[in-house]
Model the fold of this input.
Amino acid sequence: MNVNEALEIVSQTNPGMVRSHNEDSVTFDAAYGLVVLADGMGGYNAGEVASGIAVSVLASEVRHRLEEIGPEQKDAESGDDVGVAVLRDNVKKANLSIFNAAQSQPQYAGMGTTIVTGLFYDDRIAVAHVGDSRMYRLRGEVFETITRDHSLLQEQIDSGIISKELAKLSKNKNLVTRAVGIEADVLPEVHLYDVEVGDIYLFCSDGLNDMVEDEDIGATLQMLQGNLSLAATQLIEQANDNGGRDNVSVILVKVKGSYATPSGWWAKLKSWFKN
Amino acid sequence: MTAKLILSMDGVVIKEYPLTKERTTIGRKPHNDIAIDNLAVSSEHAAVITILNDSFFEDLGSTNGSVVNGAPTQKHFLQNSDVIEIGKYKLKYLNDQPTQTSSADFEKTMVLRAPVKQAKPEDGFNQTQGGVGVAAKHESTTQFNTTAPKVDVAPTPVAVPAGQTPVAIIQILNGPNLGRELELSKNLTTLGKPGVQVAVLARRPHGYFITHVEGASFPLVNGASVGEQPHQLKDHDIIELAGVKMEFYLKT
Done:
């Protein structure tokens, strides 16, 4: 099965109940198993510009690279999988584009964006993120956050200053410690995970997880896994019913089958003929 | 808006102290930020650590101890209108910045950048074990001390917004489960047989909605198909799904 057939992907974005415009940007490319979600920040429409640049750089550059080389191959420069390197390199590239735009155009000064992007290949997923946009995974009964926010609150939780329970009472929400486009360089966090058939991956902006408890998000996915687009609608609806104070975006990816890269000469030949 | 402590005794306000410093000390000696000249107060009695909009109270091993909201307390994550008692003195913590504010500006995600104040080691929340800093940018973030003890207070239960939507019941009208009732206590409840026909009932602020999830046919409400779109339920509507008839009604 190729990645296009193995995955079902839906995405939705909504301005929420309070904000006049949507600073989130989302896209996915089923043919390459790529998903990108960015949550922009900055005055006027600068947030939209920043998240828009991030998403378009990722989408076009990753596709461009993968036309030349498979994501399961080794990247000559870093020694990592091309799938990992391609996300890391292009988050950095997006960072520079946004940073340069912000430097040259006064109305964009200080703009930036968070990002979470995943590349599904060879029965695995590479996920890169910067800031507090998240990826969750539902595997069987277990629903968990896979990415760890680059935020003040998460650092406080990690260091034991504040418990996860008490963190809900904190007034220091929405302070990210890393963002794309704020400085000349950025360090994306990139990890590689094995994927199992039946997994559901949720990529979301903080407009979802600030408004809806993780438990409710997990229960929604569990109940509605038979209808992914309805699950996405229900998640956004719940965020908006709870106040919808921020833009809310979700991308859902369901793994319907194995998409291991064929190995061995016969399998390679077969897949070559199929194309 | 800066949080503040209001010092009072026997209901008489003595002074207000804005929490502008990262560390505000309370004690008998005059060098304290909040100096209380009373023998029941230790020379360095307690401190309040403020990290942006959050403040933490810590007793510094005082002789007579500190009481927060009526309970003896070592460390506490201060919440608006908490009352700290030291001897006969009361310090009321005021921070009316809402946690989830209605002001859209505040909720906007912001980037915390250097040079945000870096905690000096001796300025830490935990005196003996290094600092609580405000993390700045990536690699130059202040290293938090991973062994710093947790603020051990019982978590105040987060108030669940009381559902304005009345509780509803689904009662089965035919088949082997005839008469069985299901209370719609969650935001979402699925009905039906997976793989055959499933619908979801969503409780929303303005009522209950049924939506088709999977299956070849759509659920019927009062004999009519609801199609793919959510359909709002009225009191005593009859739902038919995978051959099972049920009545929706609001609990009174």
In short: Confidence is low (pLDDT under 50) at residues 100-106, 115-162 of chain B. Chain B touches chain A through 57 residues (CB under 8 Å). The two ends of chain B are 44 Å apart (CA to CA).
